[in-house]
Amino acid sequence: MNTTLRCFVGRATARTSVHSHHLTSKSQQQLAFVSSLHSPSTSAWLSSIYSARSFSAASTGQAPEIKLYQYHICPFCNITKSVLSYAKLDYEKVEVNPLTKQELKPWSGDYKKVPIAVIDEEQVNGSEQIIDALLDTQYVQQFLQSRWNDEASDKDVMTMQQFQNSENSQKWMRYAVDDLAALLYPNICGTLGDSYDAFSYVKNVDSFTGGQKISIQMLGSLAMYFAASRVKSKRNITDEKKALKEALDKFEHDGLDGGKLSFCSGVSTPDLGDLAVFGVLYSVNGLQAHTDSIQLRGGAVKEWYDRMHLSVMGEKAQHQIKLGVTCD
Predict the structure, then answer these.
(1) Least C-beta-crowded within 10 Å: which of 122, 211, 251, 264?
(2) pTM of this prediction?
């Protein structure tokens, strides 16, 4: 399988101790970094070969210690971060060099995709596996139930089952992971110029040297441009902006009932499906794709996004258009 497409068609899942891996001698091609973006699984059996462990926070009710390895514009990383922020969990964020993945060597073993979390010294690979692990902890369950009790009326208090495993929650989680996330790449990397702009985030990563920032922006943008072209071909996309608009039309019509619902959860607080869709869209915050899909679109999707931003980030969204102009 072409490595530049693996991030869209295959996810390997694992949970294991960070101390159980040995040094690997596999070399990595620089431009194959896009294969490390987290994506849907074609090998579900793999997760069954790893034994499930219990985090120390799961039974004690203490907040888990979390370190998250990520790419800034990775939609799956941003899904994970939306859950972390919604649950008010503190975590250490490590930006991974997409060309060398040096931050993941040697401790992550053969797994070189992101996100990877280390939760109470246990490695968890992949956004959905990280989220499941966090939602299994007593601390997060108690916090979220308390939050829902405070925020909702008696008739529509969210439950953990409804939040995580309801048919509606899973439907929009799958929409975010399987459909919406893949459509973002052609929209942010459809031209070399757009792709170069998408990697401008590296300028704000203090852990990267000046030379690394230049090489990541130049080589990374080139690799993602070609990867986006392959995604368009694989999905038979001829107009990426139209495809993204149609995907958001579906979310507005089916998820938000044309704007009648505050959240796609159907109640007064968001569920995991809401958080996943928000995370994907937030991943391109500051880029033209975000302007097109949120600000300029307006209507029910923008109103929902603003509610989600306040719920997840704890502050009102400041929408950047062009030339630094903001709008509410």
Answers:
(1) 211
(2) 0.83
